[in-house]
Amino acid sequence: MEFQKMLKAVIFPIVLLLLLAVVLLIERFGIKYTAQAGTLDYLPESVVENKPDDSRLPTECMLLVDSSVSYSVEFYTQMKFILESMSVGYDFIDIRKTDIPDYGEYNTVVLCIPDFAVMGSKLQSLFNWVNDGGRLFLLCPIEPTTAVRTIIYQIGVVEMGGEYIPISGLKIKTDFMIGSKNFTFNWGIDAGLSAVTLRLSPDTIIHVVSDESIPLLWERECGKGRVVVNHLSLSGKQSRGYYASAYSLLDDAFAYPVINSSTIFIDDFPSPLPSGFNPYINKFNNRDTESFFTNVWWPDMMSLAKQYGLKYTGLLIETYNDETEGPFERNAIVNRYSYFGRMLLGMGGEIGLHGYNHQPICFKGFDYKGKVDYNLWENYDDALSALNELKSFSSSLFKNQEFSVYVPPSNIISEEGQKLITDNFPNIKTISGIYIKEDIELEQEFCVTPDGIINYPRVIAGADIDSFDRWIVFNELSFHYVNSHFIHPDDVLDPERGADKGWSVMLSKLTAHVKWIDGVAPSIRKLTASDGAKAIQRYNTISVKRTLTDKMLKLDIDNFYDSAYFIVRIKDGKPGTVVGGSLDEINTGLYILSADSAKVEISIVR
Fold first, then answer.
1. Does domain 539-605 have CATH number 2.60.40?
2. pLDDT digits (tens, 9 = 90+) for 89-127
3. Where do the CATH 3.20.20.370 domains begin and end in the chain?
4. What pLDDT is stored for residue 484 in this prediction?
5. Which CATH architecture has domain 261-536?
6. Predicted confidence (pLDDT) per residue in 303-313, tens digit
């Protein structure tokens, strides 16, 4: 009897352990999933090839620049890109080389000239035109020159200082951008930005002030016309939304095309999980690294996605070896890939390709400039062989995935590497680099290249989001209506990316950022990268002609296929009936238009 009791005592826990093992095996390897179809289709080639060029746009704007002033050219370069993206036809006039044509031929004038003295008598003619109903955007910050002082009262300035004061940040006072009211941004005194002190008349609408209370953006009715004045010297691509929104203040109603896509990429996921203990994981979570990613990090990421309707795009890495010379061996340890990948797909996400390993596709002669410690590929055939192995490995695990998205390791790839992908992997439709590079990374615009590849750049990275990241995202919401963000599982292992604060703090910051976007842009579409790329196709292949009357804003969309999106501003009145689409209000006077027809009519109720 004693022996039987002892035997039962031993067998019972063994049976429990076996049952637990079976449950875990089912959980790890038996996860059922269905790869969900995208919400959009790729455009027919005939539509992509019919992309309108600038000659099909009516010329609305005169863009005046002084090519002898580098500052003027810098602002012009960004404004040129902004106008083209907004489907605004323009004439470029270099005042040093060309006589200024009659202002009456245009609806708007953008002045990229710091010192108005170079305009001579054409300066007063410009303001006569504004008083008769013209719309003027002074793009370059005001300088205390004699010529400027002759017109300051017409632009709403009643007093102007003679010295430049350092400015450390800004506060937005109105809803002129998406989510902008009370938005603050601080770059610090060390950034070297400054502005002349100004006092404005009571009839101006001040949209932005500096931390030092210097007006940075305002508008004023000038006779029958309107002037918008910028006094901020930020001019890089990270501030495009600021200037696009400022330009849209000129008319009583205005609309421009946007992408409407929010995507979160997870680089290096699925990938081999690190084993052992990490000091930060051990300190804050008291567990080994593999257990942390399986039982803490990924469940938290899934909860975040469920709460805010996110659709992750994971980027698969097969191995972390550094081999750039074949043969390239198959990774035989696949249980974690199956577990994470199937769960990702089951929740509506997708999987793209990141690399056989984490060595960028760069060949002998490419210069990493000492920025990264990566190898160069021995030859074209080796790089191709490694990518073929990655494709075979991925397809064997996830049979229903197209793997149409590729993200270069560390956002680095050579021109030869890009051509290798386009020549050999027709299923790859999208390459995602980054929006603003630091050095050797692949920098992109949201566009379709001549070879048909869709560029879907990632705008910011990580969970430890700083004020500069927030500024870029804020601007991209107003310029493209896009949120494009990537994170790495190993962010939580790196103190430079926030690991020294612990995952709970990092998750809290990431959640707050996602919540903020959800609050200021509630109608933005949560898309996988491939669907976001299809949205870029539609944005990239249209242009729009605007017709504004007292009671109607009409849009004629050239090369319309099945859908298009626009940011619409109505300054005077409210939208009434919409024919050819529907409007969702974002904030005061700003709307997202979903067009389902090539012709849209928005009545304006005053």
1. yes
2. 999 999 999 999 999 999 999 999 988 999 999 999 999
3. 261-536
4. 98
5. Alpha-Beta Barrel (3.20)
6. 999 999 999 99
